[in-house]
Each structure stands twice: as C-alpha cells, then as structure tokens.
C-alpha cells in the first residue's frame, strides 16, 4: 500500500514538472518618444525625434487633462512647455501619458 502511495505521488510530481508552462503575453502599447520640442499649440506638442532630420520626421502628440508634465523635474503644465526643450514623452497612439522636459542650458562665453 505504501508503495502505491509513493508511486502515485511520484507520478503527480512528474506530471507537474513536465507540464507545459502557459505564458500570457501582455502587450504594453505605450511608446517612448525622445527629442526636442518644435512647438506647443492647442494642447498638441510637436517634437523632432532625436534621430529626425527634416520636418517630415516631426511627430505631433496630443495631451489630455490626465497628461503628467514635468519641467526640470518639477510638476508643470502643458502651457509651461516651450520650443527647444529636450523632451521624453510616453504616449499611446500619439496621446501623451507623461511628458518630461528639460530647459535648454544657457551657454556662457568668457
């Protein structure tokens, strides 16, 4: 009887160890856009991607009231964004979820 119990437990253990693992892939539909702001108008931010070279490469991303904006690490509003700021935008279907911008550094000449 003990042998039968051990045999059953061993069979169950082998079954668990050899069963296929089912993985569910969840697609993250967000994309990251890195570049420089060209313009901000009517809640839309036009960005020249860091690898862009012409006007045709520019990307327009819409903002919503839920878009989280920071400028130089501080909370900000879309209206605080300006041309020439470097920017990282996380968006889904060209609608911004978050925008992190940095002001251009002033160049000091001596």
Could you describe the 3D structure shown?
By secondary structure, the protein is of the alpha+beta class. It has a domain at about 30-100: OB fold (Dihydrolipoamide Acetyltransferase, E2P) (Beta Barrel), CATH 2.40.50. The protein is built from one helix and seven strands. A hairpin with a 2-residue loop joins strand 6 and strand 7. The longest helix has 17 residues, at about 1-20. It is extended and about 95 Å long.
Descriptive terms for the model:
110 residues, alpha+beta, OB fold (Dihydrolipoamide Acetyltransferase, E2P), 7-stranded mixed beta sheet, 1 helix
- Examine the coordinates and then state which fold CATH places here, giving the name of the CATH topology of one domain: OB fold (Dihydrolipoamide Acetyltransferase, E2P)
Mean pLDDT: 84
By oligomeric state, this entry counts as single chain
Taken as a percent bin, the fraction of beta residues is 35-45%
Corresponding CATH architecture of one domain:
Beta Barrel
Spell out the blueprint of helices and strands.
Layout: H1 2-18, E1 31-41, E2 44-49, E3 59-62, E4 68-71, E5 74-76, E6 86-92, E7 95-102
Parallel strand pairs: 4-7
Antiparallel strand pairs: 1-2, 1-6, 2-3, 4-5, 6-7
